[in-house]
Amino acid sequence: MFSGIIGFIGAGNMAQAIAFGLIDAGAIPGKNVIASAPSMNNLKKFKEKGATVTNDNNQVINTADIIFLSVKPQYLDTAINSLNNIPHETKLYVSILAGIRLETLQEKFQLQCNSKSSYKIIRVLPNTAVLVGAGCSVMAANASTPEEDVSLVKSLMSVGGTCELIPENLINSCSAVCGSGPAFIFMAIEALADGAVLRGVPRDLALKLAAKAVEGAGKLVLSTEKHPGKLKDEVCSPGGTTIVGVHKLEESRLRFGLMDAVRATAERADQLSLMK
After folding, report:
1. Which helix (H) or strand (E) holds 182?
2. What values do phi and psi take at 52, rounded to 5?
3. 54, 28 in Cβ contact below 8 A?
4. Which of 5, 43, 210, 211 could bridge 192 with an S-S bond, Cβ 3.0-4.6 Å?
5. Which are the contacts of 157, defined by CB distance < 8 A and separation ≥ 6?
């Protein structure tokens, strides 16, 4: 169990997924979490978990040992401008903002404090499945962050699932899969369920079966380490039902659509990376 204080500037869905996942897993007590946001809409959920809540971002900075920057990227400047001081020696900053580079965060901190101090900053791109221990995250750290701090954040994020340390130049491409990918799969689950409903299956049962089919497929890929194409072939009997469905998906360009979604998502993150 982590004995320090973890803070969140921004209390939205991803901040909740990370914080509540850690609390529910027993990795940190709720009383060791502090979160800030402009209103109580999201903060009340933190309060229900035993966390301290505030509208003052400075209280988070001054109280927490690890500070998650979890506002939306377009609100980053507003959040940083609200800070009276950004300590650089004892604090560790973890950004979950899509497209915002480590170098950009360093520059914004220095500009706000009129300082050339080096800050310990880690970028993490998680997904909301960290809430249920099935998340997939990637992370990168700047040169000012000691190895022990990198290991600490990796261990915390691993409580919620897989966490991989990668070079920052791969963050946008990887996050298009692990960060945005669940949205694409949610659409697939919904569509599979709709197809079953079309054939007369009750909605609740259709959704459960579709979600379990996706869960099982993912576990097979990870546990067997077989190529997905090989696993697909093992399900497709000659002249059978599944190969007919696979043919329709090829006709609909399913694979092209998913590949293009990842490409477009990563390119959007690249665009955000260029914004100051």
Report:
1. helix 181-198
2. -85, 135
3. no
4. 210
5. 18, 124, 126, 130, 135, 137, 139, 163
Confidence (pLDDT) at 275: 67
| Global pTM value | 0.86
pLDDT of residue 168: 94
Q: pLDDT tens, 35-49?
A: 999 989 899 999 999
Q: What DSSP assignment string belongs to 129-153?
A: GGGGT-EEEEEEE-TTS-HHHHHHH
Are the C-beta atoms of residues 34 and 54 closer than 8 Å to each other? yes
- Reported as a pLDDT band with limits 50, 70 and 90, residue 276 is low
Q: Residues 6 or more apart from 193 whose CB is under 8 A from it? A: 203, 206, 207, 209, 210
Secondary structure (3-state) at 169: helix
Contact 126, 95 (CB under 8 A): no
